[in-house]
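DM between two lab members

TW: hey, do you still have the SENP2 protease entry open?
JB: yeah, one sec
JB: this one, 225 aa:
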Amino acid sequence: LNPVFQAMESEVSAAFDSGGAEDILSRAFKLTVTREDICTLQPLGWLNDRIMNFYMGLLVERSKKQGYPAVYAFNTFFYAKLSSTSHKGVKKWTKGVDIFEHDIILVPIHLRIHWTLLVVDLREKTIKYFDSLGQRGDHICKTILKYLEEESRERRNIELTASEWTLHSMSTEEIPQQNNGNDCGVFVCKFADFISRDKPIIFTPEHMPYFRRKMVWEIIHQQLL
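TW: and the structure you got?
JB:
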């Protein structure tokens, strides 16, 4: 192992082991990440909202660099609020932002005990649903398309033509699937990572332990490797 990698490894181990649960290990995007939050990245830990939202923040930050598609990410509470209240209930969430000026919109979704991801590609006019347990999310795609129609009408006074859009739930042949009951959050983060670089999704469940440790370092340093 090279010294740099060893130093990173010991830093990750220290993040898990040394100190109190309430210790603040990172602060950005109006979020505070404690040791307790970071510990959800331990093997078989279940990622919480704070880790998910912080990681989405890192992806959005990276997208501001040259050569990356422009990314907008909703937080993990957005879809639940939208599906229970309609566009009216989330109108203020995009105050001062035109989401249509971006290339990709990420919508991490919390389904009670499972994380999934919805991705809007405004360049291709596609809405795709990524579920590492292989469940379909056609109704979720439709809910988001309806949201986009109303948001476009309200913000830009432009009517979206629904028939021009392709809605698709990714199949188990198209994307990797988790082989346990805990890794869904990591899958969502890595789906979002690859998509926000316009890269094909080529990881496997075997990469999860490595991704978890890598994410600890990235969140602490507020920098994607």
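TW: got it. The two ends are 17 Å apart (CA to CA). The CA atoms of residues 16 and 39 lie 6 Å apart.
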